[in-house]
Design goal:
two-stranded antiparallel ribbon; globular; alpha/beta
Length: 208
Amino acid sequence: MEYQSMHYIYQSSGNPDAVTLLLLHGTGGNEHDLLPLAASFGKDINILSLRGNTTENGMPRFFKRLGMGVFDEKDLEFRTNEMVDFIKKLSVLEKFNINKVVALGYSNGANIAGATLVLHPNFLLGAILYRPMMPFRDKRSGTNRTNAKVFLSSGKNDPTVDLSEIEAYTTQLKDSGFKVSNYVINSSHGLTKEDVDLAVEWFQKIEL
């Protein structure tokens, strides 16, 4: 299976060396969904928003799943490698710094961002994972050597995510060298203003 191109939107800040915020939508979303949210993170960053290359009942996703909460890990690995390859090529075309990419993913998007941390532990400068799940059952991340920062936020009442699994996930990330900030908020699976506010505060405080 050959790698495919991806639908995307790129918004330049005018500074090729600025951080590029990589937006990864949830199931049924597209490259437009998270653009309004990205504005909360400031005007001095580049924005790259992607659309997933698979669909489920007509709804875009970044990778296939076998059932609710059960990932097709073979497809997840392929699609993660495909996405990383696409971003590397796109950085040359759009002239942004490939070493300054911070992912922001929600749900399905958070999970392919998490898979990137596992399969390419030194590719992302940081990651914001809204409502993530552990991307692989048996694969463990390689060592991160760049002190990449990772923000996670989970809903206390989210029926799709096991919070004990998230604790194990954060431990794995820390053991691999990532600097992890983990938040559990009083919500379900949907994204809230508190999620955004916490992530913006985190983003503004970390040194990238």
